[in-house]
């Protein structure tokens, strides 16, 4: 059977098979979807577990450079590293702003690295499911660390944090005023804040920025999933490759502590539940787009609203009645 | 009847009645919801039309100062101005970052102005519906201009643009590098870019920033809803109150052109249709949270997923079967 063949090759760590499997879970075709579900189901039984690290940063912060330097350090330690991009904006702009492998040329040439750009035609709900499935595939393929990168827009950060074991925020050195630009909610979500570009002319500013964030973080309530006295802001330089080992040490230490305390497994269980709820919501909504009476009623009532014949709310009530609800 | 009484007072321009009506549409209670729907339905028949201006800007850009100065200029022209805040992050952070009326003390004392901060406990879907209904209420109350402000996070900007006739992006003077921080999708969405703080030391930087954006905009394809040769970036100073009249002239000119060309009505019709589709989606999802067999099955299957007894996807399939779909 073809699915079993792909599964075997993914489990053996074959990167081409992994890429093909991810293409399968990214497909919107119904037959592909069924195959993808079967494949995920087959591979989930394997039980391999990577450290899933969500990584967010606004454009210009040097995220690609950081991922390349950090990834190379990890592969240098003998670890297998997968990089997945989650970019919900690619649907709107018609192309991924996270770009392609050429951003991380050195890392992409590493045998122990796997880089997957975000698909260019996806919707918000679809992005989450596909990303979660791609993570499972990378885990099955034996990757030790999965970096799930996203851009700093509120919604996508929440999404990526919801599928990661650790959530890392990469920030640029900045003046005191700009600290306000990072919202409290995002700061509270972050397990580790890295201030990049701690090099050259910006070294002093980066140190100050790091201290500012560390100070701001101390004012926040300690979260149950953090050990007492845990420091959550550190300076790094992706270009000079400094601070990377310290950042990795902080991440593994935190992950180990959470494993020992039960937070790690509890977080994954909670994430699985949230995924289930999302799948149900997505499934309900998918009905409206599938050819059939529901889609036809949506089109007819939508045209009526557009023509000004009825209000949006009245038409929605009518539609929900037709669906046997509301 | 009480609803008719509120409706009459809103139509008469009574600000206390308007505030009360908005509180009603913001309520999650089922009986309030029914009253709100009746009220909206009653008032929608009136057919008053304001200019709905969506306004987005990141924290620190001087949005409150701009709205106050711009609003006071408009009330000075004899226009009635309503300010509504749309802040989806307030649900997560537990409080609105857009603050309250004290931000705009002078404007809030104006008889021709109405300022409504965003509700503090709302969900993304809920925010959109309540904001749309609040807009309709302000229109019915005879406001000429409705400023719908939001913070610069991708999702909320799309939402606000989807309920506005014009979408204005307020930006701060910045170096060339930071231009990249504004995503192409957001730039394409903007009908007008205003570079604030074109005053004092920042005047020259603001002029350069404005020229940079104007240049970037010229590279974008002309949109059908814009007149030939339309310039979309201008400098303003909220503090020195300069450029405000020019900005208002650009907005009214654009709105008039769109009215004449049919784009204005077509946009509103399209927005009404999108609203209908959102309402249907929200109604379908509301079932899952309502006490009853669906909610119980969600809880039971969710617990099974959390306990690791079944995968998220398998549990979702089961749930959709129970709902008679999937």
From TrEMBL, chains A, B:
Protein's UniProt keywords contain Transferase: yes
Keywords: Kinase, Transferase
PANTHER family: METHYLMALONIC ACIDURIA TYPE A PROTEIN, MITOCHONDRIAL, METHYLMALONYL-COA MUTASE
Keyword Kinase: yes
Species for this entry: Allgaiera indica
A GO CC term attached to the entry: cytoplasm
Protein family according to the UniProt entry: Belongs to the SIMIBI class G3E GTPase family. ArgK/MeaB subfamily.
NCBIfam families referenced in this protein's UniProt entry, alphabetically: lao (TIGR00750), PRK09435.1 (NF006958)
Molecular function (Gene Ontology), one example: GTP binding
Gene3D superfamilies, alphabetized: 1.10.287.130, 1.20.5.170, P-loop containing nucleotide triphosphate hydrolases
Cross-referenced InterPro entries: GTPase_ArgK, P-loop_NTPase
Record-given protein name: ATPase/protein kinase
């Amino acid at each position: 059977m073809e699915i079993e063949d792909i599964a075997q090759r993914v489990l053996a760590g074959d990167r081409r098979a992994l890429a093909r499997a991810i293409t399968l879970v990214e497909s919107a075709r119904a037959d592909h979807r069924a195959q993808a579900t079967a494949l995920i189901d087959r591979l989930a039984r394997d039980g391999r577990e990577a450290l899933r690290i969500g990584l967010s940063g606004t454009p210009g912060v040097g995220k690609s450079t950081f991922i390349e330097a950090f990834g190379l350090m990890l592969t240098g330690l003998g670890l297998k590293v997968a990089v997945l991009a989650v970019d919900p904006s690619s649907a709107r702009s018609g192309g991924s702003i996270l770009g392609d492998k050429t951003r991380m040329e050195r890392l992409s040439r590493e045998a122990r690295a796997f880089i997957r750009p975000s698909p260019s035609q996806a919707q918000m709900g679809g992005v989450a499911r596909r990303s979660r499935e791609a993570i499972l595939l990378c885990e099955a393929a034996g990757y030790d660390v999965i970096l799930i990168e996203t851009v700093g827009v509120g919604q996508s950060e929440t999404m990526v944090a919801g599928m990661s074991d650790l959530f890392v925020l990469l920030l640029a050195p900045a003046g005191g005023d700009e600290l306000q630009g990072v919202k409290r909610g995002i700061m509270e979500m972050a397990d580790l804040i890295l201030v990049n570009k701690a090099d050259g002319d910006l070294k002093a500013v980066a140190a100050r920025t790091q201290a500012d964030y560390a100070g701001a973080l101390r004012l926040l309530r300690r979260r149950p999933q953090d050990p007492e006295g845990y420091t959550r802001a550190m300076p790094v330089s992706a270009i000079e490759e400094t601070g990377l080992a310290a950042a990795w040490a902080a991440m593994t230490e935190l992950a180990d502590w959470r494993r020992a305390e039960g937070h790690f497994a509890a977080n994954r269980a909670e994430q699985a539940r949230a995924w289930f709820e999302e799948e149900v919501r997505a499934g309900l909504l998918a009905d409206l787009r599938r050819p059939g009476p529901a889609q036809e009623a949506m089109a007819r009532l939508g045209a009526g609203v557009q023509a000004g014949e009825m209000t949006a709310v009245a038409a929605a009530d009518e539609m929900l009645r037709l669906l046997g609800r509301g």
